[in-house]
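User: Let's play a game. I give you a shape written as tokens, and you guess the letters that built it. Ready? Here's round one.
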């Protein structure tokens, strides 16, 4: 009628308690070990979302060399062109979030394309912003055979001759396209858009007079401006570029909101550990502060723009919003 005490129960509970304590201690050691695991312990892959050669590739390789010294591990550039940067962006978005796969993001992959195209990646949700490198402004250039000497004359000529002007771009949805569409909207002018497969062919026809205007990066335009093969009329950005100090900004000329630039930064896959993100940002900003790096980028018409990860993330969001508005206002949608 009476339950006899279970003499085995205290022993059983003691064993469970000891096992639990042992498990907790083990997890604690593992967590502690994980927390102090050094980074990086192997080479880091920096993907350039373009073919070898050209401005972005040059930036990636110059940066990788300096980062390797700062970080203490080799940073290896891997070129992955195609799809306007979407192939590389997809690869990085799907990579492990361990800090060993990074990418040079730029206005195409994380600015204009997300604003006008349906992409196989989300430029905001699928990436961890690490830091900005810098930006080069865009410049309105024309064929020098036109009877136009300055920006005001260009606008007046366009208004009086709406069927006589065409402009080339590096393709639909690129900054060379959307920047000019922004100008057409702001100035109330009309020009025919002639898209090309890259900026090279667009330059060929501009120099030959087949098209009359273009909106390339200042870096790409400088050799032509300096040899008088094109005429620069206005640059984007808050202030004049030291690489072309005689060319006024759009803001100086009464056109606000022309802040779009060909920018470059570093991103990793989403959910990159905060400690790794902070370290990479600190090392990146150290490189940007190096006189030799600064001098090289300045000579290529780039303004360095060190930022925190949060500031860079906000910049990406604002740039996408900027070009999404232009696309909406001009009814531009590209499949």
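Assistant: Ready! My guess for every position:
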């Amino acid at each position: 009628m009476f339950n006899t005490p279970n003499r085995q129960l205290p022993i059983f509970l003691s064993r469970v308690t000891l096992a639990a304590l042992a498990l907790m201690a083990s997890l604690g050691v593992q967590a502690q070990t994980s927390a102090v695991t050094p980074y990086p312990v192997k080479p880091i892959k920096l993907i350039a979302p373009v073919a070898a050669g050209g401005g972005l590739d040059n930036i990636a390789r110059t940066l990788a060399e300096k980062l390797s010294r700062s970080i203490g591990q080799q940073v290896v550039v891997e070129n992955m062109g195609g799809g306007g940067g979407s192939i590389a962006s997809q690869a990085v978005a799907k990579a492990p979030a361990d800090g060993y796969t990074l990418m040079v993001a730029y206005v195409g992959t994380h600015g204009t394309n997300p604003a006008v195209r349906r992409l196989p990646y989300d430029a905001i949700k699928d990436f961890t912003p690490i830091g900005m490198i810098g930006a080069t402004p865009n410049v309105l250039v024309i064929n020098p055979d036109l009877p136009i000497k300055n920006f005001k004359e260009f606008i007046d000529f366009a208004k009086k001759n709406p069927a006589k002007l065409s402009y080339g771009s590096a393709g639909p949805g690129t900054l060379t396209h959307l920047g000019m569409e922004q100008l057409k909207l702001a100035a109330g002018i009309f020009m025919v858009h002639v898209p090309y497969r890259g900026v090279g062919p667009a330059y060929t026809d501009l120099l030959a007079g087949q098209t009359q205007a273009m909106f390339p990066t200042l870096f790409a335009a400088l050799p032509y401006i300096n040899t008088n093969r094109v005429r620069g009329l206005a640059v984007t950005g808050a202030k004049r570029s030291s690489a072309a100090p005689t060319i006024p900004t759009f803001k100086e000329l009464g056109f606000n909101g022309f802040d779009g630039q060909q920018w470059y930064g570093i991103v990793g896959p989403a959910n990159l550990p905060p400690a790794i993100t902070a370290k990479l940002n600190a090392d990146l900003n150290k490189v940007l502060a190096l006189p030799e790096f600064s001098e090289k980028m300045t000579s290529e018409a780039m303004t360095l723009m060190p930022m925190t990860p949060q500031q860079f993330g906000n910049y990406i969001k604002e740039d996408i919003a900027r070009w999404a508005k232009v696309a909406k206002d001009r009814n531009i949608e590209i499949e």
